[in-house]
């Protein structure tokens, strides 16, 4: 685990540091910024090219966690300094860092730790303004304490409660902050800005449209067919193209298909090429005319949700529930409402792998933002063979949807066409005054019911989440003090602590070593379902106490969190998970909201409004 912020930095190497290459590889790397002879161009032009190259490198670094963890805002930080103080164009990267997952150390802290003393007097390049929601401004403090003198920011944060805060904080510390499009306006920055927009397209679409970033993917023959007239579709594209599809799945929170895909193809919809993030699988079916047995009903490898019309086949809903499949009912099942549900669930990116009818419905509902088309050099014909997109109501070619910023890529024998249906929203023109940056979410009205919801770590009160990056020193299975990376690690491990069984102890070690709270949660939940006999017998009666001990220690360790909690006095706190009906509030308020209740109990204890011995049920 990296040393705590403020600890002595590692001694600099005797020789000048070389370009850093992190152990975690990426599928796409930007070459190290090339040296530019100062005499070959004006100094200002040389400096701008230098900044643009390093900013582009920061976006590449930010993309390194894709497919390893649940999609989240992508933060990358590159720290560079002159190799010779007299030549600002000849730079050297001394530190890099990226946000591996929500709840893990921020990019700025990792880059500063890697740079050590070499960060003093250097410039930090950030693809996105830091998004501290944790009450302790870790990202800003990391740069300040490292001795950074200048910061180049590609984009202001798109979320209103975060936009401009970190920039203002850095400037108040005397650090020069240059924002692309504001302080840096040059044609050289156009490609760098484009890369900053692309790497965080899911967050930008979510912020602008209040739906997840949705990608429609399909494979078709050269004559535009996605299956034969019989419905047979395996395989249109080649193995290399299918590998790219696995990559797209790994970058998504969820994969959506319709009932026909389940009936005819019986897919698994897993990202089989990776060991990291496993997207949720969503089936949309109005009638629930689905097979009794299907690969998607096996939830050991991936979670499945079935979205349907209210009241459809109640008996089949119960059968699915017994298999561990979650059924969500809608008054009217349509792509727009399903995407609103996915937005509430915290999803950033959704991949549609559906047939032509559902694809046309999603496009007509304006919820598809980008398409990936894998074209195979095959012709199958057939008047009744299905096509990738059904009826859109267009009768003239002039009505056709033009793809924006499209590109082509050859993948073995196939051709990949990708392009946007809706352009990436650039929210940068909305620039807040330094004196008008809100301290709370500007969309919350003081006249509405005083309910504060939290869920993802980038929410206004994201620090209340068990996934927030606040390590806690608490006893482990041996009674020894251990630095648990997050509350979620501690909670999941305690399902198995106390069991006199070597397999249970192995699971505890797996959870302790999990790189992110998402991974810790996945291990804990999966092992609990696979090996219920290894879960402590008293878990259902003790899990509330385990959680409360952990969050109480978390808030007592970090004063900033306590101040944030006390600032909510008088408000009802709700963990806004739409699917966890024990710890969360549920989709329609039907959840027990025990995490919110525990936080309100802790808040009351701190304020001294009732004795610590009062039961949480009474407190609520």
UniProtKB/TrEMBL annotation:
Please state the pathway this protein functions in, per its UniProt record: Cofactor biosynthesis; riboflavin biosynthesis; 5-amino-6-(D-ribitylamino)uracil from GTP: step 3/4
What does the record give as the reaction this protein catalyses? Answer: 5-amino-6-(5-phospho-D-ribosylamino)uracil + H2O = 5,6-diaminouracil + D-ribose 5-phosphate; 5-amino-6-(5-phospho-D-ribitylamino)uracil + NADP(+) = 5-amino-6-(5-phospho-D-ribosylamino)uracil + NADPH + H(+); 2,5-diamino-6-hydroxy-4-(5-phosphoribosylamino)-pyrimidine + H2O = 2,5,6-triamino-4-hydroxypyrimidine + D-ribose 5-phosphate
Q: Into which EC class is this enzyme placed?
A: oxidoreductase
Source domain of life is Eukaryota
Identify the keywords attached in UniProt to this record, alphabetized.
Answer: Chloroplast, Glycosidase, Hydrolase, Multifunctional enzyme, NADP, Oxidoreductase, Plastid, Transit peptide
Is-annotated flag, keyword Chloroplast?
A: yes
Single GO cellular component annotation?
chloroplast
A GO molecular function assigned to this protein is: diaminohydroxyphosphoribosylaminopyrimidine deaminase activity
In the UniProt record, does the keyword Hydrolase occur? yes
Localization of this protein = Plastid, Chloroplast
What Enzyme Commission number(s) appear in the record? 1.1.1.193
Q: Which InterPro entries match?
A: CMP_dCMP_dom (IPR002125), Cytidine_deaminase-like (IPR016193), DHFR-like_dom_sf (IPR024072), Eubact_RibD (IPR004794), NADAR (IPR012816), RibD_C (IPR011549), RibDG_C (IPR002734), Riboflavin_Biosynth_HTPR (IPR050765)
Against NCBIfam families, the record matches this protein to: eubact_ribD, ribD_Cterm, ribofla_fusion
Name the family. In the C-terminal section; belongs to the YbiA family.
Q: What is this protein called?
A: Riboflavin biosynthesis protein PYRR, chloroplastic
Organism this protein belongs to? Panicum hallii var. hallii
